[in-house]
Structure formats: C-alpha cells, structure tokens
Amino acid sequence: MTQRSAAADVELTPLAVLVLGLAAERPMHPYEMVQTLLERNEDRFAKTRPGSLYHTVDRLHAQDLLQINSVQRSGNRPERTVYAITEAGTSALRRSLTAMLRTPAVEYPSFYLALAEAHSLGRHEVVGLLTERLGAMRGELESVNRSVEVASEGGIPEMFLLDAGCRQAVMQAEIAWTESLRDRLENGDLLWIEEWLARTTPSNRTEEDSE
Questions:
Q1: What is the pLDDT of residue 44?
Q2: Pair 79, 73: CB distance under 8 Å
C-alpha cells in the first residue's frame, strides 16, 4: 500500500489538522508548532498543551504522515527534532480540509435545543436569560475583535485569520437576532405559551364557537 492510499484511511483529529497544516508551511519542531499556534490564536480549535501536541506528532510520524527532516543541536540544550510533511500527510490534510470546507457539518448546538424548548419557561424568565446571554456574547465578540487587532498589528497575514473573520460575522448576526428575539418577547409581540394554550384548549374553543 502506498503512502497516499494509506492516507485515505486516516481520520485526522483537529490537532492533527493543525500540526499537518504547520508542517505543510515549512518543516518545524514541535515546540515551534506550539508557539505558532498560540501566536495565531489557533489553540482554541484543539488542546495544544505541549504534551498533547508531542503525542500527536509522534502518532502522525508513526502513520507516515510526518517524517524527520533534521535534528537540531545547540550546545548543551536538548536535541530538537524537526518534522516535515510527507506525501501521504499532504493527501490526508487535503482530504480533511476539502471535506470540511465543502460539506456543512451536522452539528447540534445546545443553544438551538434551548430555543426549541424555550417556551417551557416563562416569557419574562426567557427575556432575562437572553439579556444575560447577550452580555456574554458581546464580551466574547470584543475579545475576538481584540485578538484580530493584535494579530494584525503583529504582522499576521489575514489568510491565517479567516476563521476569526467568520466568527465575527456569525457572532454579530447572532447578537442581532437574539436581541430582536429578546425585544419581541419583552414587548409582547411574540406569541408565547400561555397565550397559545389559552387560544387552543378545547374549552376555550367551545366557548368561542358558542359565541
């Protein structure tokens, strides 16, 4: 079995995608990978503690997706092994990225679930909860904005920040939608469970029909 065909059977974890992506840019040693991920704020996609990243590098090397490029020695400091991506690693990375970019993932966000069943709570309680959520969301958006600003000022090219730009747009849209929902509930413009039950219970229907 060739390296390329073997890559078709490998399922990459998020951290493995990040590691292969860095190795595809240029050969790196694991410590440099950790520092680069932190510098680009990409550690939010996967746990990037040195131990977990070194373990991922070892596994990718065992799967022939990474290969040793060189071993660096400097005085009495420990040796640093520099890894480069292999042909199989390039194929595996490409397969994972094309699948993720092309096909929307089937996800089940807890917020959507809560919205679907929010009518189980009282109108005013939901208004209060959404108000709290809006505060947290605005704080998170400010944090993302600051991270993008710092990265841009530090010379990080926009191509490494596309995910942050997407997050900004999605969060802004979600904040606007949630704020509108909160206001409609607060103003009574949105029918809620009590009013709906009052209109649809059999006894009320009978009274309305008799009138």
A1: 83
A2: yes
What is the spatial distance between Cα 106 and Cα 196, in angstroms, rounded to a whole number?
32
Phi first, then psi: what are they for 80, rounded to 5°?
-120, 120
66 bridge partner residues: 85
Q: Which residues contact 126 (CB under 8 A, 6 or more apart)?
A: 118, 185
> If DSSP codes are grouped into helix, strand and coil, which group holds residue 109?
coil
3-state secondary structure labels for all residues of 123-147: HHHHHHHHHHHHHHHHHHHHHHHHH
For the cut 70, the answer to whether the pLDDT of residue 6 exceeds it is no
Residue 183 and residue 126 in contact, taking contact as beta carbons nearer than 8 Å? no
Please give the C-alpha separations between residue 132 and each of 31, 128, 135, 145, 173, in angstroms, as whole numbers: 39, 6, 5, 20, 17
What would the pLDDT profile of 56-69 be if each residue is shown by its tens digit? Answer: 999 999 999 999 99
Rounded to the nearest integer, the mean pLDDT of the chain is 90
List, in order, residues 6 or more apart from 194 with CB less than 8 Å away: 123
Write the CB contacts of 63 (distance below 8 Å, at least 6 apart in sequence): 6, 10, 88
Check whether 1 has a pLDDT greater than 60: no
Mean pLDDT of 173-202: 94
Question: Which has the closest alpha carbon to 24: 91, 100, 90?
Answer: 90
